[in-house]
Amino acid sequence: MNKGISEKVLNDGLKVPAIGFGTAWIKGAEGVKVLTGAIDAGYRLIDSAFNYENEGAVGQAVRQSPVPREELLICSKLPGRHHAYREALETIEESLYRGGLDYYDLYLIHWPNPKVDKYVEAWQAMIEAKKRGYIRSIGVCNFLPEHNERLIKETGVAPSINQVELHPWFNQEHQRAKDAEHGIVTESWSPLGRGHDMLKNEAIGSIAAAHGKTPTQVILRWHIQLGAIPIPRASSIEHQKENLDIFDFGLSEAEMQAISGLSREDGRLWEQDPAVYEEM
User: Fold this and answer.
1) Minimal CA–CA distance to 62: which of 76, 49, 77, 46?
2) How far apart are CA 235 and CA 242, in angstroms?
3) Residue 143: which of 125, 160, 124 has the closest Cα?
4) Distance CA 158, CA 258 (A)
5) What mean pLDDT do residues 58-65 have?
6) Nearest by Cα to 260 from 185, 167, 145, 143
7) What does pTM read for this prediction?
8) Phi, psi (rounded to 5 degrees) for 62
9) Which residues have a Cβ under 8 Å from the Cβ of 63 and sit 6 or more positions away?
10) Residues forming the active site
11) Which residues contact 75 (CB under 8 A, 6 or more apart)?
12) For all residues of the chain together, what is the average pLDDT?
């Protein structure tokens, strides 16, 4: 594991860094440059998805990097249109071919798509893919507690990770607590709100000033202390390094509560409620 970055142990024993690198919209030759720069900066957990159409760029960055493959943890995700058992297995194989990889360290179901109601079938395919050695650890994204509980009830296998929208406007307290009951680690997508006004929030700004850190660093530290794994995306090397520089300070309980208190019931930024949202 990269020096200075703490790690978490998943319920299947896999050790993962406490922070990862998001790759949505990072693709092509320029994307490979961004990704190799991120690995050089110290990131070891790289988050991709079949629907990001950048598994090839991620794989190319892995091959170009001097960091050994076994020191990197590469994640991709199964799209909603391929939840049927056979299609799911074929899609995972295609993900491997696209990335030119022998295995993925993490593979997640991108959305539950409850109207289609094939996510249990997709999970059974993920379990089989792990048995075949395609994947080291299997998890989910955007699954509500009832979705995860159904997976466990019908297959006996709990996800290792649940990647959900999580940021100061939407702290996912209930979701995190329910997942923790099953040993499911929370991973945060959109941890900084994708450029929304939370970086200009007065309370966050004052906490940052008190620690000699940026608002970005304070929010990412908040994720770490919640026990979640943030996966911020950053194209510039300066921001990549800034996002990693969060392990030399801590927030007080009062500061944690002040940030968590910014959460609101309607805090989802794009109204993507997993109970009804469908992603194909």
Assistant:
1) 46
2) 12
3) 160
4) 32
5) 98
6) 167
7) 0.97
8) -60, -45
9) 100
10) 52
11) 20, 45, 46, 47, 48, 104, 105, 106, 107, 108
12) 96
